[in-house]
Every structure is written in structure tokens, then in C-alpha cells.
Known about the structure:
Layout: H1 8-15, H2 23-35, H3 39-52, H4 57-70, H5 78-96, H6 101-117, H7 121-134, H8 140-163, H9 177-190
Helix pairs in contact: 2-3, 2-4, 3-4, 4-5, 4-6, 5-6, 6-7, 7-8, 8-9
Amino acid sequence: MKLSRSLTPFLFLSLVPAFAQTSDDELKLGVAAYKDSHYEQAAQYFEKAIELDPSNIKAHMYLATTYVSQYIPGVDTDDNKEAAEKAIAHYQRVLDLNSDNTQKVNSANGIAYLYFNMKSWEDARKYYQMASDLDPKDPEPHYSTGVIDWSECYGPRMEARAQLGMRPGEHLSSRKPEQKKVCDELQVGVRRPGRS
């Protein structure tokens, strides 16, 4: 079978992207694959971009984002945990490299988001604090830290209420002698260094 001369250049050009050799070329291929929701293929291109240039901040950011796209909050499987851990590692790499403030904020928020969904409260709190320090005007880290605080105390509080046989409309009160000890124990349970 002979190829017509008019098709030969198109065939050659269509094969060129498969042989990209620079970090930026691999990054472009990864972005295209990511946009088409081909996350595994995108990850391979981003990994190759990092292999060619370990300091390519954009490749680390895109690779972390690709892993986050594959992560499903609340699903406790090895593959899901691995996706989160890989994303965290690449976000951390961005923080360690000479990245700009926006990249650092996005990485700190990305790590905090993953730890939050993994219910690793102290790690999430640490990275939300980092994001807040980098961008004090962003309300999201403050809100998320509040959600962490609420999440930590809600379960024990509901458990204590059930043990006391309290009805839904009743509130725990340290002024009631039979509830004071429970309130004191709950308060001690949620105290952390630096907080009163």
C-alpha cells in the first residue's frame, strides 16, 4: 500500500508529539491529556516532564492536580490513599522549590484539603495555617479550620449527650451538676497547645 504524498506530512506530524523530549513538551502533552480526562496518561507525561527537569514547578503542580482528580474523598482503599499521598508529595515539592506565592498558597491548600478529607486533622490544620499565613485575606483556610474544630468536637459531644439520655432540644451545660464533669472532659479532649 502506497501513501499519497499529501498524507505523508500529516502522518509524520501526528507522530511527533509521541516523541517529545523536553520537559515543556511533555508538560503540554500532559495538559492536553488532562483536559481530555485521560488522567493516567496525563500523569505519565507530567512524570516524564519532571524526570527531564525535576525543578519544573508547573509539572509538579499539574501532576498533583491530576492525582487529586483521581482521589475520591471518603473512599478508604489503597489506590485512593496512594493517589492522595502522591498528590501531597508533589504539592510539597512545589513548596520546597522556588515557587511563587500563588503556587505556594495553592499547594498548601491542596495538601490541607487532602488531609482534611483523610481526617488527618492536625496535618490539615497545619497546612491551612500555612495557606493563611501566605494569603491572610483568603477566608477559606479560616473557615476550614473552623470545620475541623467542629468535626473534632461534634462526635464526642453527641456521644456524651446520648450517654446522659438527653433529648434533641436539650443542651449540655457545665452549670448543671450532673453535666459539669462531662463538659469538663469534653473541653480537655479538644484543647490543643496554644489554645484555651
